[in-house]
Amino acid sequence: MRILQLAFLNFRNSFKSYLSLVISLSFTILILYNFQNTIYSDAFAVLGQHNKEYINMLIQVVTIVLLCFMFFFIWYATNVFLTRRKREIGIYIFMGMTNQKIAMLYMIEISFVGITALVVGIGFGALFAGLFQMILGAVSETAIDVKFEIFPKAVAFTAVAFLILYLIFACKGYWNIVHSSVLGMISAARQNEYVHIKNSILLLKALVGIVLTTVGYYLANKGGRYKVMENLLLAVVLVIAGVYLLFGGLIPLIFQMLLRNKTFLYRGQRCLWMNQTIFRMRKNYRTYAMVCIMGICSTTALATGFAMKERYYNMIVFDNKYTFQLLTNQPNLEERAAELIQKETDIVCQTSLPVLSPDASHLVVSYTDIIRVTNESGVLFPLTEPLENETYYLSYQVLMSFILSKEVQTVTIGNDTFFQAGIVREPCLGYMQREMGCFYVVSDSTYSRMKEYSTMLYIHNYKIADNAAFERARTAVDVLISNTDENFTARVAVDPFDNGLEWIKVLHALCIFMFLVFIVAGGCIMFMKLYNDSFEERERYLVLKKLGFSTQTLTKSIAHELISAYVLPFVVMAVSTYFSVHALGMVMYAELLSVYIVSILAVMIVFALCCIFSVSVYRRNVGLR
Fold first, then answer.
1. Average pLDDT over residues 362-376
2. 219: which of 8, 175, 212, 595 is 20 to 30 A away, CA to CA?
């Protein structure tokens, strides 16, 4: 029989073993293909060239993340299945086959897996390309032009990128087999990831892991003015290293301490699964750490998506607080502009605010005036009147900020120096507040004193009722300004139909897809690992059955053992995610507790489904049904 035929027979007979790998890879390929297909399509062209460029850039960034994930996922998956097949491959040597032929057999067989995953992934990706874009548009609440199109460039990029990554690890497996001994192949299935570690080493790893994760959590939630980004990047590295050491040291150490407690151990037949759980933890801790880190990435991506969406709506509300704003030195311009606008449409909100210009860089308003204007426009000013030497800065809604300093800043305005006692991000003055970024609120007495050396200006604000009349109203206002005897007049017109920030909503949708990819992949990795381990435990459970243990008792033991395997990464992930989401909320000025709870519940559901499926498959593989 030729090697190609033998490889195909092995692939066909072992397809169930490869099924979880094929499904996982196909799902990732499907997402990757559809992202690339979206870039080459004109689905987001209706949003304008600016948004389309931003969206394409975001999809390229997501593509890089997906390729990095695929690299590590293929690395892990091929290692697991190579280990699973090594014992069987080792037997071929006794049949007279050389290592080179066996390696070629493995490479052809694993190539069948990759080609199957690629064909299924691209096939279903092309089939559901239009649906993918519809979902992307629906989740992002964006009206897009959906067309069923297959772009050869998207197919080529997906196929080439996947095959390059896959061939790297197929060649790695080839090299591994060629340089393996017969004994190593036969015993590989039991070697796995397990390395015997002394208790003192476990304690050291546990302490270092606790320190690293604690420092990582601290840096992630530490404020600052200039080093917030550096702290966040360092926190990511420390938490990843800390999680790895927690699973390699702290958690096995805790289980060993519980094992020494005989009262705990012999209650409810825990001795059947506790020892095996400790062995599994010390054997598979790298896998659990990987799944935990993927869970942290997925929930943080989901929180990022919802935070982006919240910031988008806040920024839209902020900028559209007023449709027209005039900054002028002419107080009588307010009613003249209002009359012209009302010829085109009604005005639902009209306010006027006197401001002082003590120097070229700052504009000052009194506390009483800003309270009056915000009350008239329906905005709640959050702070009480400042002291004589204090001021409030009227800031604006930002997508994110890495300046999180809580230190009291000083600002020199004209001839006076003030303590910046607060920052107000409510839309008191709408778009002009964001565009100029130089408004400060002072006490009434300070305002009166500053009049002596300041220039008096006025801000006239208008919110129109009918957005369809925007262009006509803008033309009327521009004609007024051009025909006015003026020393200084500036006009702001906010187009209610402007879609320059639509790309943020698409980013929200992309983050949701990334959440799904990572969390489904994490569940698949856990399932693949437990599926592989189940074949090693078949003899153990057959012996236990011969010793008189009932199928029901052994099933409960398996359930406890596998539940602990899923629960431990979930718990560490949930704790770590709380700090990462809190840090994200700080830089985006968003309250994300509800998003954190929802994401944790979503991960719990995915893990629960994977666990139920794993218990069922595990029972079958060990011969309990």
1. 92
2. 595
Contact between 22 and 11 under an 8 Å Cβ cutoff? The reply is no
Does pLDDT of 197 surpass 70? no
pTM above 0.90, yes or no: no
Indicate the angle between helix axes 551-588 and 593-621, nearest 10 degrees.
160
Q: Which residue has the higher pLDDT, 597 or 547?
A: 597
Predicted confidence at residue 521, as pLDDT, reads 79
Burial class from Cβ neighbours inside 10 Å (0-12, 13-18, 19+) for residue 16 reads: exposed
> What number is the average pLDDT over the span 60-70?
79
- CA contacts within 13 A on the Cβ side of 539: 2
Indicate if the pLDDT at residue 440 is higher than 90: yes
Tokens of 168: 């790297």
In this structure, what are the phi and psi dihedrals at residue 483, rounded to the nearest 5 degrees?
Answer: -100, 10
Residue 303: the pLDDT is 86
Q: CB under 8 Å to 599, separation ≥6 — which residues?
A: 298, 299, 302, 303, 515, 577, 581
Query: 319 and 430 in contact (C-beta within 8 Å)?
Result: yes
Q: Is the pLDDT of residue 189 over 50?
A: no
**pLDDT on residue 400:** 61
Residue 330, helix vs strand vs coil: coil
d(CA 611, CA 617): 10
Tokens 């943080």 belong to 300
Question: Which amino acid makes up residue 278?
Answer: I
Measured distance CA(483)–CA(474) in Å, rounded: 14
Q: C-alpha angle 383/389/394, rounded to 5°? A: 40
Transcribe 513-571 into DSSP letters.
HHHHHHHHHHHHHHHHHHHHHHHHTHHHHHHHHHTT--HHHHHHHHHHHHHHHHHHHHH
Rounded to an integer, the average pLDDT of 471-475 is 90
Say if CB 590 and CB 307 are below 8 A apart: yes
What is the number of alpha carbons within 13 Å of residue 139 lying toward its C-beta? 19
Q: State the average pLDDT for the chain.
A: 80
Distance CA 80, CA 611 (A): 19
For the record, the structure tokens of 239 come out as: 């938490």
**Non-local CB neighbours of 450 within 8 Å, separated by 6+ positions:** 356, 358, 364, 413, 414, 416, 442
* Helix/strand/coil percentages in the chain, nearest 5: 70, 10, 20
Q: What is the mean pLDDT of residues 17-30?
A: 79
Instruction: Report which residue type is found at 274.
Output: M
Neighbouring residues of 120: CB distance < 8 A, sequence distance ≥ 6: 22, 26, 29
Given a contact cutoff of 8 angstroms between Cβ atoms, the answer to whether 624 and 534 are in contact is: no
**Are 107 and 171 contacting, i.e. CB atoms less than 8 angstroms apart?**
yes
CB burial of residue 1 (10 Å; 0-12, 13-18, 19+): exposed
Strand 363-366 and strand 439-442: the pairing is parallel
Quick: pLDDT tens for 481-523. 877 665 577 888 888 887 777 778 888 888 888 888 888 878 8
* Contact yes or no for 514/304 (Cβ under 8 A): no
User: In the 8-state DSSP scheme, what is residue 41?
Assistant: S
Sign of CA dihedral 419, 363, 462, 310: negative
Q: Which DSSP state fits 46?
A: G
Distance between CA 183 and CA 77 in Å, rounded? 23
Mean pLDDT of 558-580: 87
pLDDT at 366 over 90: yes
